[in-house]
Amino acid sequence: MTSYALKIGEYQLNNDYSIQFKIDLNSPITLKLCHNYVVIGSVSFNNDQCSLLTHQLCETANDLYELLTDLLSTASSSPNSKICLVGDDHLNVSLPIYFSSRNLTKIWSFTIEFLKSPSFNNNTIEEITLDPLDWTDTKSLGHQIMDDMIDYLRDLRFRPTWRPVPLAVQESLAQQDIPLKSQTPWQVYDEVRSLIFPYPLGNIHPRFWG
Which InterPro entries does this chain map to (predicted)? Predict the structure, then answer.
């Protein structure tokens, strides 16, 4: 029986999906389908299953590993060889086979079906995003910040060039615990407006001669 060392590979199928391979000494080959780097399905094949799956084209799990990795590596340069995802649980594989005795080329194809992970539900995939929960509220906050910024610059020359941070403010900041929960953008801006804006270094003041 042929033996081979541990082999691991990962290939991108498209912008959202990728496939991972793992095969060890005489063990089944394991394929994992990932959506945005999260495993959503997997399947394993032993030697007999690889032969049956590929219509005896691959006699061992290692043969299947080498075939798939070779196709994925050269798919862009070989238009007749294709590996494409159908839905989110089927991988269609097709490649040309040349029969020299008959001077004939035929397309050999087979389909790999993944078993979905129990926690995966295509209808509940949540996109990881930094977008605000409420765009209207964010727009209002943006307008408020812009108004405050213009007023701040307008009245800047009437303020002292520099103001020391009062001891009470320093103690308040030093004694605050690290927040364990998130704050709304308005709460964050209120803290900036009351604790930071009044005490600049002064380098934008007309009388600043740094």
Answer: PyrdxlP-dep_Trfase
Q: Is 34 helix (H, G, I), strand (E, B) or coil?
A: strand
Q: What is the pTM of this model?
A: 0.49
Rounded-to-integer distance, Cα 190 and Cα 206, Å = 26
What pairing do the DSSP bridges indicate for beta strands 82-86 and 38-45? unpaired
Query: Is residue 114 packed enough to be buried (19+ CB in 10 Å), middle (13-18) or exposed (0-12)?
Result: buried
- Domain coordinates in residue numbering, the chain: 7-77+113-124, 135-195
Q: What is the pLDDT of residue 1?
A: 42
Q: Residue for token digits 């862009």?
A: 76
pLDDT at 104: 78
Q: What is the pLDDT of residue 26?
A: 65
Where are the alpha helices (H) located in 31-184, listed in sequence order?
47-53, 61-74, 135-154, 167-175
Structure token digits, residue 104: 């004939």
